[in-house]
Amino acid sequence: MAEALLAGDRVSNWDLRDAGPDDFPELREIRRTGNQALRNAARTLLFGLGGPEALGEYDLALVRRLIRGKLADDMPVPMDCCELWYAIPTADQTAVLDAFGLSDPEPVTMALGTEIWRQHYDSGHQRCARVYVSPALDGWTLVFGRPSDDQHPASVTDESTWGIEPREQYLAMLANEKAHREVARERCAELSRRFGAAHQYWRSYGDSTTSWCVAEKGELVRFYDVSAPEESVGELAAETGYLLPHEDTPLPEGWADDIEHTENPFDWQREWVRRYRRLKAELGLPDHCNADTIAEAISVHPGKIGPHTRVEGRGVITLTRCGREYGHPRTLLRGLTYTPAPERPSLLDEDQT
Questions:
Q1: What is the pLDDT of residue 344?
Q2: Does residue 320 lie in a domain region?
Q3: Is the domain of 177 the same as that of 282?
Q4: Which of 8, 39, 115, 128 could form a disulfide with 151 if both were Cys (CB 3.0 to 4.6 A apart)?
Q5: CA–CA separation, 146 vs 213, rounded Å?
Q6: Closest to 298 (Cα-Cα) out of 237, 226, 209, 220
Q7: Which tens digits make up the pLDDT trace of 242-254?
Q8: Dihedral angle sign, alpha carbons of residues 83, 89, 92, 95
């Protein structure tokens, strides 16, 4: 696998699933006796399998020294695929770590924190073991991920206990989602008693799922989830002029009925989008808002930070209770620098049709 990394072959976290601490001695032997390139690859794999503790004192000191050198001129990096994050109006990072039950903070550049967070999607406790906490960005500290208690509340049932009937599984999934929504409201209210305000945002990049929760001084000001609009609480001025995600755009009846279906299904989709955008503009219909829209309006949108963002302090990677119990999740880092990959063109983008 070290040689595959050197060759530029695609290696992912999934390729590490059958490896573990039993492989540390061989990797450490490569660190001692291999050529420079292989030694670097072995260090990458050691970190990927066991986190900072697996590196050993020398390598850990080396990595920390490299990070300290890069922190001197660290620049904000826009984050994509954030999914779930909290926004807390404070620059007191220590208090935020305490409030979320986080420990073992390791300073990272914003680029490295972004790279690590992008790799949190594995199953099991890989998803909930580690959290990235940003520096204060325009006065807001962003926390990417849930505390362990929120990820595993007593009211949530494990999938392994579900029955085999599809409807039974579906109802269990809905019950778990409802329990997590309740946890989000309680967590935001609790945090707002300590920090004056607290926001939680969810923006799925695989579908249209989105939600936002805003609390101030211990009281829930706004809660909205597209999956359960009937549970909504309050409203925000930032939503004015937008449609909520569950609301239909008021287009004329039958507006897309005459779009021709061809052998290529994308032809229909492209024409649908063209006509949808044209009718919206002609009729002056509003856009839909989502968690990104609201975050940008009332706190900080992670995808819009950059050189213009005021930064205080340093970002850290930290462990949750699950992380302390099960260890660092597997994270395959190719280096200590990160350049966001160009966005993939969407079939729904007008300039691609």
A1: 53
A2: yes
A3: no
A4: 128
A5: 14
A6: 237
A7: 999 999 999 999 9
A8: negative
348 phi/psi in degrees, rounded to 5? -95, 0
**At 329, which helix (H) or strand (E)?**
none
pLDDT, tens only, 130-182: 899 999 999 999 999 888 888 888 888 887 788 888 898 999 889 989 999 99
Owning domain of residue 178: 75-238+288-336
In this structure, of 99-108, 241-250, 262-271, 322-331, the range with the lowest mean pLDDT score is 322-331
pLDDT in tens, 48-77: 888 888 888 888 888 888 888 888 888 888
HSE, side-chain direction, 13 A CA sphere, residue 292 = 17
pTM: 0.85
What's the number of domains the chain is made of?
Answer: 2
* Final residue before a domain boundary, out of 287, 316, 346: 287
Based on the domain organization, do 210 and 279 belong to the same domain?
A: no
E strand segments, the chain: 83-88, 103-108, 130-137, 140-144, 197-203, 210-216, 219-225, 311-312, 315-319
Does 84 lie in the same domain as 102?
Answer: yes
From 120, 139, 155, 287, select the one nearest 199 (Cα to Cα).
139
> Is pLDDT of 230 > 80?
yes
Same domain, 130 and 256: no
- The dihedral through the CA atoms of 148, 120, 123, 145 has a sign that is positive
Contact 118, 70 (CB under 8 A): no
Nearest CA to 28 out of 46, 16, 51 is that of 46
Own/partner contacts of 33-41, CB < 8 Å, gap of 24 or more, are 34/2, 37/6, 38/2, 38/3, 38/6, 41/2, 41/3, 41/5, 41/6
Query: 64 in a domain, yes or no?
Result: no
Whether 257 and 217 share a structural domain: no
